[in-house]
Amino acid sequence: MTDDLVLRNEADGILELVLNRPDKLNALTRSMFDAIAQAVADLRERPDLKVMLIRGKGRYFCAGVDLTDPQGGPGFGESPTGARTWMRRDLMGGMHSLYEEMERIEKPIVIAHHATCVGGGLEMSLSCDFRLASQSAAYWFPEMQLGMLPLSNGVGRLTRIIGAHWARWMVLANEKVSAERALTMGLVHDVYPDDVFEERVRAFCIKLAGFPTEVMAAGKLALEMVEDLPADQARQLERLTFSSLAFTPDQKAMSKKMVDKLSGQKS
């Protein structure tokens, strides 16, 4: 539970985490990262868990990494060499590996922004499969005002998701982005009204949890691989995944259910 800074709940195949440090705007500490990493490991190992949902509590979703955290703050002194050492030792062994595991895991991770998401919180969000926003949400990389740049592969993931055009807007121009603008940019997948936000997020997660685990895993793997494949190899991968899933018990049952539903609509 990490002193209740990360709340955890399990229901309907959904592993829900809630960032619970509202007095510090949910700024992330090393112990909070450890709690999230443990939850990701549980998601991977337990077949009863189908989906992870990450939410926040308070007036911010997350204000980024807590730079005053005695366990994980930047201890790189005054030199660029010290900064690089800190990045290799702490970040690559901590945040970097966590975010990469969140991308690699064969189950979907949903992150739900009810309010402003900044810096390291946004970098973590970019590692998730689905980003959902309330109308009150907003997004910002503040690093330019600190004389720095995002450092947990935020630049790389952001550019891959929204393209260099909008990445320049957020990183170089240092512009804050509303939920609606984030939707048009492709930064988030959907925006819901504040008063039904939690309900809509929950319904989305329940839908994901209802899909067969093997199909979801194959889909995530295929989507990751085709990004770097030529078109002909991507088609071969599609054929391979299709043939491996066709005529399984799950596929037959789902196909029958769909046919029965369509037949009922026609009658």
From TrEMBL:
Pfam families: ECH_1. It comes from the Bacteria. GO terms for molecular function: catalytic activity. CDD domains: crotonase-like (cd06558). InterPro entries: ClpP/crotonase-like_dom_sf, Enoyl-CoA_hydra/iso. Gene3D superfamilies: 2-enoyl-CoA Hydratase, Chain A, domain 1. Belongs to the enoyl-CoA hydratase/isomerase family. This is Enoyl-CoA hydratase/isomerase. It comes from Novosphingobium pentaromativorans US6-1.
